What we know:
Blueprint lengths: L68 H13 L1 H4 L18 H14 L21 H21 L3 H14 L6 H21 L6 H16 L3 H9 L1 H17 L5 E6 L7 H10 L9 E8 L3 H17 L4 E7 L18 E7 L9 H13 L4 E7 L8 H22 L5 H20 L12 H10 L2 E4 L3 H11 L8 E6 L2 E6 L2 E11 L1
Parallel strand pairs: 1-2, 1-4, 2-3, 4-5
Antiparallel strand pairs: 5-9, 6-9, 7-8, 8-9
Amino acid sequence: MENHxxxxxxxxxCGGAPITHDEFIPFxxxxxxxxxxASHLPLAADADQVEGLxxxxxxxxxxxxxxxxxxxxxxxxxQIASSFQSGAIEDPPQSMLPVGAAxxxxxxxxxxxxxxxxxxxxxxxxxxxxxxxxxxxxxxxESESVELTRIxxxxxxxxxxxxxxTAGALLQRCHVRSSPAGxxxxxxxxxxxxxxxxxxxxxxxxxxxxxxxxxxxxxxxxKAVMTPSIQxxxxxxxxxxxxxxxxxxxxxxxxxxxxxxCIHVVDLAIKNGQQWTILMQALASRxxxxxxxxxxxxxxxxxxxxxIEQMGNGLVGFAEGLGLPCVFESVVVPDLAQLxxxxxxxxxxxxxxxxxEYVFNTLAEPLDRLDSLIRAVRSLKPCVVVVGEVEGNMNSxxxxxxxxxxxxYASAFFDCMEDCMGRDEPTxxxxxxxxxxxxxxxxxxxxxxxxxxxxxxVDVWRTYFRRMGMVEEEMSxxxxxQANLVARKVPCWKPCTVKMNGKGLMVGWKGTKINSxxxxxxx
Length: 523
């Protein structure tokens, strides 16, 4: 894609005043974004294709028996561990580029994966080379981390092959050597080994394995992530991914509603709501002749009604402080799949935008639930729908596929947390336990329709959205600039990458893709 050169004023959002959250008491955000020289920012990159599991078709590997799952595990580990060599990852892991640089968490997992596949050399068809790691000298701690990860992979292999006694013995070794307060690999293995133990306990009848229990566990994670929480907001403030995606998404909304005087945004997962203070400041700084007459925010939720109302009052107060007329309404439904046009009050003359951040992956099974929500969104006649999703293929019906994909994804995230937060910080411990402690159990231990959260890659979503009559809108160069601008305001920003992927944006960490932001309209 062609590079773009343009000037950006001291405003964070195009046409807006400098962005700050200092005055917004209800939310723990406190940073002002100033001018950054655009010449120092990576403004564009060639789009790359992303492999994904098509949700419109069954997984071609799903029919394989347990006896064949060990072959699948070798294949998945080999494919992912060597993917940086084949270009499946957008860049080689940055930590490997400088000579003598410390290995990242993902590097260590890749080395463990290489050793795991190499130890099964009778499977020549899936053998891989250690590639860039063949001449790496590991420290004592790194060697221990690699060994611990390899034991975890061996345990997953045996669990998939229903060799539960062997898997249990391996997991006991993981339990002894891992810790929620140790180094990143020890923390990663702590959560994933317990997730595997949970799966084995379900398979062997040691714990309840009913659909109700499984769905309740899956639902608990959804509630923890979606309910407004100061702790979770602080966690996302300390790492770049959420902020980068939100600023880029808000910029897309600003551009698609340019010139609109009555604006109505519908947020399908408002969480703490601080993202809308960004939009408010952009709208409040418009010239008098284009001044917004009224902003309306409708928060759609299935949880936390009282806290959402409190958060709404804070948003309205923030808008009033800017001289921006604002109305907040909440819509609580038992299930997002039950949302309809009748739930959202849209007035004549309002221009509508919809924000869907990490929402659609909770409705992908059965697919008619997601179809229903998309039809409801269409009925609102939005000018733009901004979608943020995890860039991970964790929707396979085959356990080992999900486990390996999730483990590699989490390794990049744990590497980010190691760079961005101290090991003993309560915020880090809360985020790890909430996001990965529970999600690792859901990915590893829960099968079938009881698994609520089903992350998929952006090209899979593109296929689905097009089938539903949606057209992808290109994220502008300014959206890309906003994303890079915000990334640079996080102290640990350097390994964070923001690049174009087709018409959307892809946020990554040391070359591994973490989440995507795309904009859509209806035909």
